[in-house]
Structures are given as structure tokens and as C-alpha cells.
Amino acid sequence: MRIEDFDLELPQELIAQEPVHPRDHCRLMVVYPDGKMEHRYFYNLIEYLSPGDVLVLNNTRVRPYRLRGVKTTGANIEILLTRRLSDRVWEALANPSRRLHLGTEVLFDKGLKCKTIQVREGGWRILEFNEEVESYLDELGEVPLPPYIHRKVKEEDYQTIFARVNGSVAAPTAGIHFTDELLERIEAKGVEILYVTLHVGPGTFLPVRVEEIEKHYVLPEEIEVTEETAERINRARSRGGKIVAVGTTVVRTLESVAEEDGRVKSYKGKTDLYIYPGYKFKVIDRLVTNFHLPKSSLIILVSAFRNREIIMNAYREAIRLGYRFYSLGDAMLLY
Angle of helix 297-305 relative to helix 248-256, nearest 10 degrees? Predict the structure, then answer.
């Protein structure tokens, strides 16, 4: 399939610039396997869950991995830390990347500084700091927002209420819509709520640059599924419960650790699973997700879960009805 098959014209005014309050009052489009649609609100999600189902959430937390500094020449530069290689050495992206040559030094507040020790293709840099970096992040760093959000957003509005495990450069945004009250009501209905971890990496911001989608790849990301979570998912499936993934990160995590018969294994490590049409899902029955960027690996994934024609038709209807798109926008339930 070609990447143009996943393109559509999205009016700029539909790209959400601020969250909805309360969180669960965003709109929810429900899409059935035959393409039929219902238009609800997120707090209605509970009506589509049954006792014995399992709702799986990603408990990663976004860290303030964006640092603003100056070169010794006085030029401003922005650093996005993407992967810790050791206490003082990090993989990073720079903006503008052309300013970070081998040996370039960048100065930050509080005496923190770094030097470029390796230049890689695609704008990647390896930076060595003069101090251990993590202890500086809460004071000097900023939570990285997607480039299409142009307004200042409070950090708590870009975290899920169940964010616990530090490590992401972007939020698993399908989970942002949940409130404590909604989760309590879902649990009281007899739905089991479980957590996995996928630390969202910088690949979430990178476009698909190939014409044939089968040739695309995604960058590895850290995941964890505990033994207890795996066992509880397997027990629920054996009883006939549906596995409802909240977000594409949960889909990729669970599908990465599932056997061919759908049994889930515990695992801690990396995944580079790329899901595109033709993929045979092993464990996921339902998907809660946001409205994604055209021509992205995320819209390709949801098109694999529910065929491309149905998804693109749903997106066109969402545009016609003024749904809000992307990270801070409205939600979709693929039932």
C-alpha cells in the first residue's frame, strides 16, 4: 500500500491546542466493524464495556526532556534528550541540528553543560554532560510538546492521571481522557483495569518517509508487562472477557508479547513492532484511540485494526462534524 492512501486534508482549526475540562467531556466517536458510527462523549465509554472485560492503560510518565541552552558563540539551541546511555551520556535531537557539530559545547543554567561527542544521520547526536543529568531535569527541563501544539499547556494537562513510570518524551494521549471518577465507575461495573508500560520515544514525532508503507520501520521503545498483568489478561481471555487497549502504545506492547494463540507473556525490554494492514491481531479486541496525523504510522496502525476504508471514512466524518484532532483532541472507540 502507498502512503498516499492514508492522507486527507485536515483544516488547521481542528488541531486541538488545549485540553477539554473535565477530561472525560471530550467527544467520542464509536466505530463498529461494519463502519456504522455513533457520536457520544468520553464519559459514555463505560456503556461499551462489560463485566469481565479488561481495560489496559499505559502508565508511562512524560519527563521534562527538553533543554534550552546556548552555544559558546551565544546562539540559542534546543536539545531533546531521547535515550540515556549512561549517567552523563545521552542520545539527543537538536533544533537546529546543523548547529551541533562534533565538539560543539552547549551551556545551560546551574552550571550544566554538554559536548557533542558523536554526530549521527537524521539529526541525532550523542552528548556528554559534565554532570549527571536527571537531577537537573525538574528544574531546567520542559515537557516536550508535539510541534503542532502552539500554545503553552500545563504539564499536568499533558500527563495521564495514572502516569507513574518516568521515561516518555510524549504522552500516551488516548489515556488523557480518563478521570478518577470514570475509572472508579468502570471498575465498579466489574471491568478489570490493568497497566503496562511503553516509554514513548521520539519516533512518535517522525513522519513516514517512504512511498510503500511496508518499507517503513519504527524506532525501538522500552516496554514492560509484568507477570501478574500477563496472567490476569490470560485469565480474562479464557473467561471470554474482551481486551480493550487504550492507545496505540498499549496495542504495540501487548501484541509484542503475545503468542500466536493470544496468550500474553511477561516481558521487559524493547519493541520495534510496526503494525500495518495485513497484520493479524492476537490479543486486542477493542481500541480506544485519538484522531491521528495523516500519513503517520499511527493512522496506519488503526487502519490495520479496522480496515482502511472504514477508518478514512470515519476521519472524513469527524472533519465534517468538527471533531478535534491529535494529542489534545477527541477520541475514537473501535468497537
Answer: 70
